[in-house]
What does this fold into?
Amino acid sequence: MVTPYELDAESDSYGLDAARTLGLAAASVFKTLLAQLDDGRLVVAMVPVDATLDLKALARVAGTRKAKMADIAVAERSSGYLVGGISPLGQKKRLPSFIDESAMTLPRIHVSGGRRGLEITLAPADLIALTEARVAALAKR
It folds into this structure.
C-alpha cells in the first residue's frame, strides 16, 4: 500500500514526521540509510525512525571493520533519491541491504516510497525478499 502525506515544514526528521502524521508507531516506520564501509563499498541499512544505526554492528555483519554514514551527495547519486525520501526499493544501483531484526516482530512496516511525503506499507518478509536484505541487530535506542 502506498500512502501520501503532508510534510511538516518545521520537522527535522522525515521518518518521525511520517509516523506522527500517519498515526503510526515510530518503531514500525523504517528509515533507509546509506553507509560506506572501510573498503569503499556502499550498503543500505534500514532501522526504525526512533532508533539510530549502530555502525559497528553494520560493519560486523557486512564483513568489515568500520562503517560510516555515506555523504549526502553520494547517497543521493547512488540511490537516485533525495535524502529524506530514499527508498530501499527501486534504487539506481542494487546495493547489499541490511534490516534491523525488530522488523521481524511486526506484521507490517513502513518505508519511504521514494520521495518525501510518501510511505509504502508492506510485510517485512516481502521487503526482505525484494531487497535481498540480511536481518541483523542494527538499531541502537
